[in-house]
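Section 5: illustrative case.
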């Protein structure tokens, strides 16, 4: 790898005109990208460029946006249109820590439309994400080693040659199980991202990017088809100024695996996302692809990054089950049956109960079998 900063490509021209609609309450205390001081180094340069791009309203807008099923407001009832640059000028400077990027929340359709993606990616559903912060880079081996020295983290589980701990300090930490990833994030005052937060960030929110960087092929844009991981930030930034959301190492999320549209309240496998350095198919780098495994498992292909709610962020569906996390909510679902509609808990016919007994509605989890 060259010691010089890697080149980042200019964002592609806007392909469709779409201004994010933001309520007057949101504008009163908006939170957008955090400005940076003149700190040297490639990573700080990339972060500064990404923030500057957001503040001038520059955004890549590629990929096929899904057509709304319902929830189309008339012009008379729609809130005032506020553009990204207007929000940026009023943004709080301390929304996120310096090592994190600000991800402005909003509504988006999560998953894949009928006829696209894998079965686990359907049904596609509409949700709303609160403003949050996400690590600019995957957690590095050196950062994790510092946590081990502090006593807050345990040593990675593996010692094979592709495990980075103690070998490659600027590579992502790998060979850690879910519990170790969770412990690290909590030691930083953060947490693992929810699956919805992760996909929202990787797809550029309602830009619906197929990969974090856009729709171009992965070669030269991420670490893949490789024998081991790459140093974090070896390639240009993707959506929201984030690095390596697609490729390098897969990333643990907070959630148990379950059928869409609700996260499972428990289970036997945790979700991980993003694709890894050893992938050979573009499909495995896709921003909607879901993968899962026993939380006690680990591998050289698997790492993580941390998240937290942005300062003064509002949870659209209320507080979650754990501190610092919002409750998951569903606004609409692309139901598969012609006579089915989303009833607030599941897809069902008009005369069906909200949940089919013995299941009951549980806030943030939909119909849960008792």
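Designed sequence:
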């Amino acid at each position: 790898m060259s010691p010089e900063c890697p080149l980042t490509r200019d964002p592609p021209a806007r392909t469709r005109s779409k201004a994010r609609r933001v309520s007057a309450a949101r504008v009163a205390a908006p939170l957008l990208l955090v400005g940076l001081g003149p700190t040297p180094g490639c990573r700080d340069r990339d972060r500064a460029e990404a923030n500057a791009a957001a503040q001038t309203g520059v955004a890549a807008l590629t990929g096929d946006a899904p057509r709304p099923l319902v929830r189309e407001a008339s012009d008379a009832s729609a809130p005032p249109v506020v553009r990204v640059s207007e929000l940026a000028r009023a943004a709080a400077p301390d929304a996120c820590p310096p090592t994190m990027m600000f991800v402005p929340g909003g509504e988006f359709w999560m998953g894949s439309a009928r006829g696209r993606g894998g079965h686990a990616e359907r049904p596609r559903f509409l949700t709303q994400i609160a403003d949050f912060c996400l690590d600019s880079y995957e957690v590095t081996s050196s950062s994790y080693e510092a946590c081990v020295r502090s006593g807050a983290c345990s040593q990675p589980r593996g010692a094979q040659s592709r495990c980075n701990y103690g070998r490659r300090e600027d590579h992502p930490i790998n060979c850690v199980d879910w519990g170790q990833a969770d412990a690290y994030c909590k030691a930083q005052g953060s947490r693992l991202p929810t699956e919805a937060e992760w996909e929202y960030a990787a797809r550029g929110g309602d830009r619906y990017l197929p990969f974090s960087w856009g729709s171009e092929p992965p070669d030269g844009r991420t670490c893949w088809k490789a024998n081991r991981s790459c140093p974090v930030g070896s390639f240009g930034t993707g959506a929201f100024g984030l690095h390596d959301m697609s490729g390098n190492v897969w990333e643990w999320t907070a959630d148990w695996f379950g059928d869409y549209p609700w996260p499972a309240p428990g289970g036997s496998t945790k979700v991980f996302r993003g694709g890894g350095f050893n992938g050979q198919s573009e499909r495995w780098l896709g921003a909607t692809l879901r993968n899962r495994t026993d939380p006690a498992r680990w591998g050289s292909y698997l790492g993580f990054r941390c998240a937290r709610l942005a300062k003064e962020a509002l949870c659209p569906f209320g507080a979650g089950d754990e501190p610092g996390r919002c409750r998951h909510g569903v606004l609409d679902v692309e139901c598969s049956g012609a006579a089915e509609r989303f009833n607030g808990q599941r897809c069902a016919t008009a005369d069906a109960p909200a949940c089919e007994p013995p299941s009951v509605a549980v806030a943030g989890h939909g119909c849960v079998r008792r």
